[in-house]
Automatic annotation (TrEMBL):
<dbReference type="GO" id="GO:0003677">
    <property type="term" value="F:DNA binding"/>
</dbReference>
<dbReference type="InterPro" id="IPR000847">
    <property type="entry name" value="LysR_HTH_N"/>
</dbReference>
<dbReference type="InterPro" id="IPR017685">
    <property type="entry name" value="ArgP"/>
</dbReference>
<dbReference type="Pfam" id="PF03466">
    <property type="entry name" value="LysR_substrate"/>
</dbReference>
<feature type="domain" description="HTH lysR-type">
    <location>
        <begin position="1"/>
        <end position="26"/>
    </location>
</feature>
<keyword id="KW-0804">Transcription</keyword>
<dbReference type="GO" id="GO:0003700">
    <property type="term" value="F:DNA-binding transcription factor activity"/>
</dbReference>
<keyword id="KW-0805">Transcription regulation</keyword>
<dbReference type="InterPro" id="IPR050176">
    <property type="entry name" value="LTTR"/>
</dbReference>
<protein>
    <submittedName>
        <fullName>LysR family transcriptional regulator, chromosome initiation inhibitor</fullName>
    </submittedName>
</protein>
<keyword id="KW-0238">DNA-binding</keyword>
<dbReference type="InterPro" id="IPR005119">
    <property type="entry name" value="LysR_subst-bd"/>
</dbReference>
């Protein structure tokens, strides 16, 4: 492998890898990884047309998605396509603010992001708005926010955040209650479903997509702590520009589904 890397670097007349542990691609290395993903996808789509019937392999599509989209609308949107075509998804879950990095690094050919501007060689379409509500159980609200949310009560109540890079809850409490970005209690949980579970168990309050908790809100199991004052994030579907094939089918399916479920 190292010999092939050296040959490639000789061909492009510059390093493609940063020799550290683990190795990281250089800027040109990331572009080559992206090119490899495109060529691989085109090969996977073309080869079945050249093979005898019944001998074609599935097309693998790496998608960089945020956990909330994965937990709500993404899989239902792609279900008809997965049933109709030999398709394998490789889902890379992370934060929607940084998901485009996966396309830059060559790890993904599709990304769900809050960034409206496409990368070079890519296209971006508007999906819709994901509406987040700050919720808890009625019992949690009575215990920690008996007189409503304010700087003092919010600083003492346990919240939930996705990871150390997740700034949604940080911005929510700092903008509304003038709190610092650190110093308040929070659990760190890298699972959208676990956010809901912890809220329903009454051990924390958190920001959850309305789409994910409509039933709990209707039954009163969870309550909106800040009615009319949630968080909205606009989502965009980024993908390599293509005239047709599975990426075009996937884009059409997701845009059509998202129009009906996202605000």
């Amino acid at each position: 492998m190292s010999q092939r890397i050296k040959q490639l670097e000789k061909l492009v007349a510059q390093p493609v890898l940063i020799r550290e542990n683990p190795p990281q691609p250089t800027a040109i290395g990331r572009k080559l990884l992206g090119l490899h993903q495109r060529v691989q996808l085109l090969e996977q789509e073309l080869i079945p047309e050249l093979m005898p019937e019944g001998q074609s392999s599935a097309v693998t599509v790496p998608i960089s998605t945020n956990a909330d989209s994965l937990a709500t609308w993404l899989l239902p949107a792609l279900t008809p396509l997965m049933k109709a075509q030999a398709l394998e998804l490789s889902l890379i879950v992370g934060d929607e603010v940084r998901s485009l990095n996966r396309i830059r690094s060559g790890e993904a050919v599709v990304a769900i992001s809050t960034e409206p501007n496409p990368l070079h060689g890519c296209s971006a379409q508007y999906l819709g708005k994901m509406e987040y509500l700050c919720v808890s159980t009625p019992e949690f609200k009575a215990r920690f926010f008996p007189n409503g949310m304010n700087a003092e009560t919010v600083s003492k109540a346990p919240a939930v955040v996705f990871d150390r890079l997740d700034d949604m809850h940080t911005l929510f409490v700092s903008e509304r209650f003038n709190l610092p970005t650190v110093g308040w209690r929070s659990h760190m949980v890298r699972s959208s479903e676990a956010f809901v579970k912890m809220a329903k168990l009454g051990v924390a309050y958190c920001l959850i997509p309305r789409l994910q908790i409509e039933q709990e809100l209707s039954t009163g199991e969870l309550v909106d702590l800040c009615p009319g004052d949630g968080v909205t994030r606009q989502l965009y579907w980024h993908h390599f520009s293509t005239e047709g094939g599975v990426l075009a089918d996937m884009t059409e399916a997701c845009l059509r589904y998202a129009r009906n479920v996202l605000a």
